[in-house]
Amino acid sequence: MDITQYRHLVWIGFLLFLHTHGHTHEIRVCPTCPVPSLTIALEQAVDGDHILVQAGVYTEKTIEVNKSVTIEGTDYPIIDGSNNNELLHVTADHVTIKGLHLRNVGTSYTEDRAGIRIDHAAHFLIENNKLEDAFFAIYLAYAKHGAIIRNEIRGNAENEVSSGNGIHLWYCKHIRIEKNTVTGHRDGIYFEFADSCQIRENLSIRNLRYGLHFMFSNDDVYSANTFSENGSGVAVMFSRRIAMYDNLFENNWGSASYGLLLKEIYDTEIHNNLFVRNTIGINLEGATRIRYYHNQFEGNGWALRISGGCLENAFYQNNFQGNTFDIGMQSSASTNTFDDNYWSEYTGYDLDRNGTGDVPYRPVKLFSYVISRTPEALVLLRSWFTDILNFAEKITPVLTPATVIDNNPRMEPVIMNDK
Asked: Sign (positive/negative) of CA torsion 63, 64, 67, 68?
């Protein structure tokens, strides 16, 4: 092929691209229009079209979005599934869905029905939608390079068995989840095999199990989110290189609840987070090579509860204020370091006035050590017996872990970075 033929073929390809993608045709949907439903609009549409859905109530079966289109609602038109089926099934790349009110996706025990399902598709945008009473609200499977932004997701989950997740990712990459509100689902946001994603400025509140749940996902970042009043705040399991910063974990109460669970997680940074009024601020199980700094632990049952297999973690420049127990340990051996933290329970002195206590601080109370082995002893928490135990161990440490010690306790709280 000579250069003239090559240029001719390139020019033909460019003209075909312009013919296919170079114009936008608007299809208007309304109850009294020639196109009365989204299903009919998509049958008529070609790649690049803009489907504008007017206000109204549209009862639809599953809508197959297999063309690269923009679907936009005016005044939040209601797409109702009548509790029988999922609503939007997207299999095309370059799809935008915004301004819709999707409701009544039927519960199923044999399939994961969703309000919006992105299936083997890329370069999508799901923005400014309302999803109500959906089994799964937004479900991504084998999706990549997409964004889920400013959606309001409200479920009516009563138990974990009959409920799905608000935003669910399965084998996904490069997804941005930002400024969504998720409530009333099993898990607010769920990741499994989802890598290189960003979760930012979301509110995940009053979900049955977790506000955010990670499984087998790597190189993700979640920041500036609020996880409040969930069964537990966040669980990160079997993952690596997860950055967690500027988040609020609050009011996650229950007999086995926590702000953050770390299980078999490695090579991570956790900083500038606020843990307030959780049963356990951070629960560590097999968490290794993690740096914790500039975090605030305030008013929790346990600020940190550390099980076996937690190695080479560094805790520094954190504030521990008003927690019932700052640290609970289930193992006397520790390769973790605790240095340059502020402890409100510290009663040492600073004679040289350099801002650091002259006496090291041992944050594991004897009574906390007893509870880790005999939980029933918790009923003695406010008794004089507890005070005697802790005082005796403070004077002559025998049972508490000798390696859990802050040799440079701060006299004043750490000033946290602005969020």
From this structure: positive
Continuous segment of H or E residues that includes residue 13: helix 3-21
Pairing of strands 125-127, 136-141: unpaired
Structure-token match 């609970």, residue found: 328
Q: Would you tell me how many other CB atoms lie within 10 Å of the CB of residue 48?
A: 16
CA–CA–CA angle 156, 158, 161 (5° rounding): 115
What whole-number distance in Å separates Cα of residue 280 and Cα of residue 272?
A: 17
pLDDT tens digits along 319-362: 999 999 999 887 666 789 999 999 999 989 999 999 999 999 98
Write out the two tokens for 66. 């297999």
Torsion sign (Cα): 372, 378, 384, 385 = negative
Burial of 396 (0-12, 13-18, 19+ CB in 10 A): exposed
What is the DSSP-derived secondary structure letter of residue 111?
Answer: S
Q: Report in angstroms the alpha-carbon separations of 179 from 129, 198, 227.
A: 12, 11, 13
Helix, strand, coil distribution of the chain in percent, nearest 5 = 10, 40, 45
3-state helix/strand/coil string of 367-402: HHHHHHHCHHHHHHCCCHHHHHHHHHHHHCCCCCCC
SS3 (DSSP) at 404: coil
The C-alpha atoms of residue 150 and residue 409 are separated, in whole angstroms, by 42
| pLDDT tens digits, one per residue of 226-256 | 999 999 999 999 999 999 999 999 999 877 7
Which of 46, 106, 44, 33 has its CA nearest to residue 74? 33
If you ran DSSP here, which 8-state letter would residue 87 be given? -
56 vs 31, 85, 133, CA distance in Å? 7, 20, 18
Angle, helices 366-373/384-395, rounded to nearest 10 degrees: 110
Instruction: In whole angstroms, give the CA distance from residue 31 to residue 104.
Output: 19
H or E stretch covering 338: strand 337-339
SS3 assignment, position 235: strand
How far apart, in whole angstroms, are the C-alpha atoms of residue 401 and residue 207? 37
